[in-house]
Amino acid sequence: MLGAPPNMFFKVCWWVISPLLVMIILISSIVQYSPARYGKTYTYPPWAEVLGWFFSLCSIIWIPLGAVHTLYYSEGTLLQVSDCVCRTLLNIEPDYITNQICANLNFPRIIIMV
């Protein structure tokens, strides 16, 4: 859009900080749940609560599902896979050992046009 790739700050925000904050908000919403109210007297019926949670989860559930999918279908330990994913997404040149590990992993290379 600007003719140059985004700097490291924006890549870290898009790939690390934003998903982490979304997960924290989702978990805290579930833990601190209380039924929705209108004013002080009316409490919404259970079907309306379920419908509201369904609409909320439709937009944010794909972030953790995508992470679980990538970890499940990639070979290697959790640390090896997460290291390869982070280095690939942030375009960090891996060292020799990490490069050998990533070459042995069945990790789908993602090409992102940002």
From TrEMBL:
GO terms for cellular component: plasma membrane
Chief place where the protein resides: membrane
Residues passing through the membrane, by range: 12-31, 51-72
Sorted UniProt keywords: Membrane, Transmembrane, Transmembrane helix, Transport
Location within or outside the cell: Membrane
GO biological process, one term: amino acid import across plasma membrane
SUPFAM superfamilies hit by this protein: SNF-like (SSF161070)
Topology relative to the membrane: Multi-pass membrane protein
InterPro entries according to UniProt: Na/ntran_symport (IPR000175), SNS_sf (IPR037272)
One Pfam family hit: SNF
GO molecular function, one term: amino acid:sodium symporter activity
Highest taxon of the lineage: Eukaryota
The keyword Protein biosynthesis appears for this protein: no
Keyword match Transmembrane helix: yes
Protein name in the entry: Sodium-dependent proline transporter
Source organism of this protein record: Acipenser ruthenus (Sterlet sturgeon)
